[in-house]
Amino acid sequence: DSGVTQTPKHLITATGQRVTLRCSPRSGDLSVYWYQQSLDQGLQFLIQYYNGEERAKGNILERFSAQQFPDLHSELNLSSLELGDSALYFCASSVEGRGGNEQFFGPGTRLTVL
Amino acid sequence: AQSVSQHNHHVILSEAASLELGCNYSYGGTVNLFWYVQYPGQHLQLLLKYFSGDPLVKGIKGFEAEFIKSKFSFNLRKPSVQWSDTAEYFCAVGGTGGFKTIFGAGTRLFVKA
Question: Is-contact A4 A74, C-beta < 8 A?
Answer without folding.
Answer: no
